[in-house]
Amino acid sequence: MSWSGWCCKTCLARQDRGLYQRGSAIGGVGSPRQLTNCPWCGSPIDAGRDIKIEPFAKGRGRTFIYCGDLLGRCPFSRRNSPEGLPVLVVDEEIYRCLPALLIATVDKFAQMPWNGATQMLFGKVDKRCSRHGFHCPDLEDKDQHRAVGSFPTARSAAHRPLRPPDLIIQDELHLISGPLGTLVSLYETAVDRLSTWEVDGKRVRPKVVAATATIRRAAQQVQALFMRQVNVFPPQGLDVTDNFFARQREPDDAIPGRRYMGICASGRRLKAALIRVYVAYLSAGQYLYHQYGQAVDPWMTLVGYFNSMNELGGMRRLVEDDVRSRLNRMEQRGLARRNAPLLEELTSRKSSTDIPDVLDKLERVFDPARDPTSPRPLDVLLATNMISVGVDVKRLGLMVVAGQPKTTAEYIQATSRVGRNAPGLVCVVFNWARPRDLSHYEQFEHYHATFYQQVEALSVTPFAPRAIDRGLAALLVSYVRLLGSEFNENSQAGKVTGTHPYFLAALNELSQRAVTITGSSEVGEAVRTTLEELREYWLNMTKANVGTQLGYKTRKDGKTIGLLRQPGQRDWTPFTCLNSLRDVEPSINLILDERGLGDIVVSDPGIEGGVNGGEQVS
Ligand SMILES: [Zn+2]
Ligand SMILES: [Zn+2]
Question: How far is the CA of 391 from the centre of ligand 1 (A)?
């Protein structure tokens, strides 16, 4: 069920036979161990013991995940269930078995032009094999299989399309903004179209439920993203402190709140201030821990929040060096000495398989009665906005924010990770050299008293010229390739005709959507013109060379030339399509060369600049 962009070894082995087109377009290689514990009984799942891969040629081509319960009491253990947990984690198995509930990230929209099998998620299947499940033209299977092992002969029969998804749930709607949101809303056009079906001559679109705690101008936002009207639930009511569904309460002993504190050390570098704040909190925590024991646990793990990887990396070095050595001397200042802090980070540098481990470490509690041989709890966690997404560790109570985050929504989301069970303390260390930070410092109290009001409107501009450059070709290909079976298979890219209904649907519906969302008929015209140019280019490609054929992707068969181009390889062509909606612009490595800059002496490599000789920053 988790459509998150990786595949397993069997898939790679089958890639040669054209059964699984992995290609560099589709994520990286991951592990089928997406679940660390059984969702039913909580027993740990061991990748070596509890995951069984049944190859395609000798079986159903499935990855079975069993509950690791050694006593075999769980209904999903190997003993009680032949297929284990009802969970699919390999892309191709998801297409063939089509689960009732699919969990994915919006990034995966980028797959639509690249992979014809994505149409199956919208119920567009053509056949069903009694052993392997559904197919579509781009996900081929043999029509007959001989009996093998315990499996009887299998054959494929034609199958009617299935009902497309009825309900789309978009969690954390506030994250779908900026360049990512703009592309998502563009690709969403194709998702919306593919999920639409006709009932008694009426077009039925899926229902969309979006969730967020921080949004402004929701109606415009939802219109641009999903082209739908918005109904807010729960309704706001007459009394801001009590709308029946939620009540605002004064913090007291039973319901602790969160305290915010601002520090602005004028004339000091941000990192110098940060070091002192870290040392003070860590050592004060230790002091209280000596007196009150486990009751102080919420303030023993310091969460450092950073607005960029660069700043976080700098702080990591400082914690391991400056903070560490200062902590050893804090006894002299009336606080407590603390051993070398155990540090972890929660950033995009961590792979998705490491993140559950970090979260497990965060759950470890400071307890004087702890078994000294058991693993130590974390002293410091350094995090970027990754922590704002679904990290729910109840014991955390202390956060230091380095510099005011870019948006208020981000600030609220990040800082509300602490102080869930115990009183929370958030300390924002401002950079006095940044005017925006200074302004936040000056209005600290008012800003925090009203910060839900300060949430900025998100910017989503799906039909802005640059968004059209980046995403419209992918959208056109998705329409033509995924709406039906005719042009679904890779080599069918060369068989298109310019007057086919799929082309016309793309032209009409996309330009109409542009008009509805932007309210400007000129934008609609611009979209239509661009689409006509793209169609022209595509049709020219189909008749380019004798002896070759046009595919969506280049094949190593000596004759298939790809229409689609990978970004970053060469210049941007009309049909360069993104692999991920997050990497809208490539990151650029800069090499800072200090030679020739004369007498600039950097005595203190800082976290703001990383101005060490010849160091690479990105
Ligand atoms: Zn279980
Ligand atoms: Zn089959």
Answer: 24
- Residue 43 Cα to ligand 1 midpoint, Å, equals 6
Measure 65 CA to ligand 1 centroid, in angstroms: 11
Average pLDDT over residues 480-496: 93
> Helices marked H in 450-578 — which ranges?
465-482, 501-518, 521-542
Judged by average pLDDT, the poorest of 59-63, 156-160, 579-583 is 579-583
Q: In the predicted model, is pLDDT for residue 259 greater than 90?
A: yes
Integer Cα distance of 227 and 424 in angstroms: 39
In this structure, which ligand is nearest to the CA of 154? 2
Which listed ligand is nearest to 78 at the C-alpha?
1
**Of residues 82 and 34, which shows the higher confidence score?**
82
Q: What is the pLDDT of residue 344?
A: 94
Q: How far is the CA of 501 from the centre of ligand 1 (A)?
A: 50
Amino acid letter for position 82: P
pTM confidence score: 0.78
Domain encompassing residue 474: 465-562
Q: What is the Cα–Cα distance from 418 to 614, expressed in whole angstroms? A: 38
Do 315 and 419 lie in one domain? The reply is yes
- What is the 45 CA–ligand 1 centroid distance (Å)? 9
The ligand placed nearest to the CA atom of residue 59 is: 2
Task: Please tell me the distance between residue 167's alpha carbon and the centre of ligand 2 in angstroms.
Answer: 30
- Judge if 401 and 283 occupy the same domain: yes
CA of 36 to the centre of ligand 1 (A): 11
Q: For the residues 300-306, what does the mean pLDDT come to?
A: 96
Q: What's the pLDDT score for residue 597? A: 57
324-340 per-position pLDDT tens digit = 999 999 988 889 999 99
Residue identified by tokens 């704040």 is 277
Structural domain includes residue 371: yes
Ligand with smallest separation from the Cα of 128: 2
* Residue 113 CA, ligand 2 centroid: distance in Å: 25
- Residue 18 sits in the same domain as residue 51: yes
What spacing in Å lies between the alpha carbon of 531 and ligand 1's midpoint?
52
> Looking at the predicted structure, is the pLDDT value of residue 503 above 70?
yes
Count helices and strands in the chain by DSSP H and E runs: 15, 24
Listed residues 388, 421, 454: the one ending a domain: 454
Residue 21: per-residue pLDDT: 31
Residues paired with residue 591 on neighbouring β-strands, in sequence order = 616
User: For the chain, how many structural domains are there in total?
Assistant: 4
Which structure tokens are listed for 72? 């075999």
d(CA 249, CA 252): 9
User: Ligand 2 centre and the CA of 148: distance in Å?
Assistant: 12
> Do 332 and 358 reside in the same domain of the chain?
yes
- Cβ atoms 25, 17 nearer than 8 A: no
